[in-house]
Design brief:
Blueprint: E1 4-6, H1 19-22, E2 27-28, E3 34-38, E4 48-49, E5 56-57, E6 62-65, E7 74-75, E8 80-89, E9 95-103, H2 124-133, H3 146-149, E10 160-165, H4 174-181, H5 183-197, E11 201-207, H6 211-221, E12 227-232, H7 241-249, E13 264-268, H8 269-281, E14 287-293, E15 301-306, H9 311-317, E16 325-330, E17 337-338, E18 352-357, H10 358-361, H11 374-378, H12 385-393, H13 397-402, H14 413-417, H15 424-442
Helix pairs in contact: 2-5, 4-6, 5-6, 5-8, 12-15
C-alpha cells in the first residue's frame, strides 16, 4: 500500500528529547504492593466508590460507578484488600476521592470477566456498551470517554475515523513503542471503532520520523483498502485533533466546533489498542504505557504500568533521580502539568512522567512584547496570542471571546517561540477559565 503525506500550517520544532527512550526496549513495570485509584480519571462526572474499606477486590473488578452519560466506570488494577476510601492527591493538583488497595500479589481475576467474542458477532450498540463497561477513555491525555466519542449526534454526518499516532509532544515515546509492538491490536481496534460509528474509511496519522511504526502498521493493515496510513511532517502540534484532521483530510473544524463537524472521529492509537484488548480478553482498562524520562532520571524508558501506581514508584523503577529535579511533569513539556509531589498516582491519562533538572527547568524572566509577530506565525489555530494575552491581563473577557480565545488548544507554541519569553498561554488559560465561569453563572 502507498503511504500518503500531509501536514498543517504553523507549528514549531522544539528539541526532540526522545532519543533516550525511543530505542530502549519496552519494559513491564513491577507488580505494585499498593495502588491508589482516583474516582476522577476522565473528562466528565467523577465516579462514586462502590467498595468499602476492608473489602476484598479482584483484578478488573468495578470499584467506581459512573455518574451520567459522560462518565465511565473505574476498575481495580490489582487483587487485594481495600485499605482506604478517602480523599488523596491527584496529578491535576486537586485532591479527589480515591480507593486505596493493598495488593495480595496474586492478580486474582474478577470471575465474571470473559472475552466478548469476534467483531463479526457484535453490532454498534454492543461495541459501545463494551467500551463503556471497560472504562475506556482517550489515552492520548485528554481522557474523554470513548463510548461518548463514538456516539455521533444524529445531526452530524461522519464518514471516517482517524487514529492519532503522531505523538508530537517532546520526550514521550509510549505510542511509538505501542505502534511497533501492538500494531495488530491497533488495526483491530480501529476496525471495531469503525463498525461502532458505521463508517467505511479509517486513517492512521504517524509522524515521518517513526519509520518503524509506519512499517509495522503498514504490515498489519495488509491489503485492506479501507485503511490508509499518513506520514505526517514532524513538527509540533502535529497530533492536535484539528491539525490532524486538516493534515489528513484537508478539512477544517469550524470555530467552536468538534471533529464531527468536519465529518470525522479522532482517537489515539492507545485507545484503539485498548478497545481490541478489551474485546478479545474482556479485561477493562487497568494499565497503560507511559514514558518516564528527562535529564534527572537515571535510566529513562517506556514501561507498562498499572493504574494507581505512584509516580515515585515508576521513577524508582527507572533508577531514581541522578540529581535533584527542578520540575516533575505529568505528560510532556508543552502541555503537561507540573507536580507538587511524586506520591501521586498514575491515572488513565498519564502518558509520561518527565523529570527535569533545575538547569533544564529554569524559566526565563519575561520582558515586554516587541510585537515581532512570531506567535501569530506559529499558532496552528491562526489566532493572535499577543492580543489575547493582553486582553486577558486587562480582564477584557468580551474582547477575548470576540477574538475566538475559546478556540485556543493551549499547545504552548506561542509561549515557546516568544523571544520576550512571555507566558502567553498561561494568560489565555486564565481568560478561558473566567469565560467558562461567567457562562455557568449566566445559565
Amino acid at each position: 500500500m502507498n503511504v500518503k503525506h500531509g501536514t498543517f500550517r504553523g507549528g514549531i520544532h522544539p528539541p526532540y528529547g526522545k532519543e533516550s527512550t525511543a530505542a530502549v526496549p519496552l519494559e513491564f513495570g513491577e507488580k505494585p504492593k499498593m495502588v491508589t485509584i482516583p474516582m476522577s480519571m476522565h473528562i466528565g462526572a467523577p465516579c462514586t466508590p462502590s467498595v468499602k474499606k476492608g473489602e476484598y477486590v479482584y483484578l478488573g473488578q468495578k470499584i467506581g460507578e459512573p455518574n451520567g452519560f459522560v462518565s465511565v466506570p473505574i476498575h481495580a488494577s490489582v487483587s487485594g484488600k481495600v485499605v482506604a476510601v478517602e480523599v488523596r492527591p491527584h496529578p491535576s493538583g486537586d485532591r479527589v476521592m480515591s480507593v486505596v488497595i493493598e495488593s495480595d500479589g496474586l492478580d486474582i481475576l474478577e470471575p465474571s470477566i470473559k472475552p466478548y467474542g469476534s467483531l463479526e458477532k457484535m453490532d454498534a450498540e454492543s461495541i459501545k456498551n463494551m467500551i463503556l463497561n471497560a472504562g475506556i477513555v482517550g489515552l492520548g491525555g485528554a481522557t474523554f470517554p470513548t463510548h461518548v466519542k463514538l456516539t455521533v449526534p444524529p445531526d452530524k454526518k461522519v464518514d471516517s475515523i482517524i487514529l492519532n499516532g503522531a505523538e508530537c509532544e517532546p520526550y514521550l515515546t509510549a505510542d511509538h513503542h505501542l505502534m511497533q509492538t501492538q500494531a495488530e491490536k491497533i488495526v483491530l481496534g480501529l476496525k471495531v471503532a469503525m463498525k461502532a460509528v458505521d463508517v467505511e474509511k479509517g486513517f492512521i496519522g504517524i509522524e515521518d520520523n517513526k519509520g518503524e511504526a509506519i512499517e509495522a502498521l503498514t504490515k498489519a493493515i495488509g491489503n485492506d483498502l479501507n485503511l490508509e496510513i499518513y506520514s505526517l511532517h514532524t513538527k509540533y502540534p502535529q497530533g492536535a485533533e484539528k491539525q490532524l484532521i486538516t493534515a489528513i483530510t484537508g478539512r477544517e473544524v469550524p470555530s467552536g466546533g468538534l471533529p464531527a463537524d468536519a465529518g470525522v472521529v479522532v482517537m489515539n492509537v492507545g485507545t484503539a489498542a485498548q478497545i481490541a484488548e478489551s474485546m478479545t480478553t474482556g479485561m477493562p482498562l487497568y494499565k497503560r504505557l507511559l514514558t518516564c524520562t528527562g535529564d534527572a532520571i537515571k535510566n529513562p524508558q517506556t514501561l507498562e504500568i498499572r493504574i494507581g501506581v505512584s509516580f515515585q514508584s515508576v521513577i524508582d523503577q527507572c533508577g531514581g533521580f541522578i540529581s535533584e529535579p527542578g520540575k516533575v511533569i505529568s505528560g510532556g513539556p508543552m502541555m503537561g502539568v507540573s507536580q507538587f509531589e511524586t506520591e501521586v498516582p498514575v491515572i488513565k491519562g498519564t502518558s509520561g512522567i518527565l523529570c527535569l533538572t533545575k538547569e533544564f527547568a529554569d524559566v526565563s524572566i519575561p520582558s515586554n512584547c516587541i510585537r515581532c509577530g512570531k506567535c501569530l506565525s506559529v499558532c496552528p489555530i491562526h489566532l493572535e496570542p499577543l492580543n489575547l494575552a493582553a486582553y486577558s491581563q486587562k480582564n477584557k473577557w468580551k474582547q477575548c471571546e470576540e477574538n475566538h480565545i475559546m478556540d485556543c488548544i493551549e499547545c504552548g507554541s506561542c509561549s515557546y517561540i516568544c523571544p520576550a519569553k512571555r507566558t502567553l498561554v498561561s494568560s489565555i488559560r486564565v481568560a478561558k477559565r473566567e469565560i467558562v465561569a461567567q457562562r455557568r453563572k449566566g445559565n
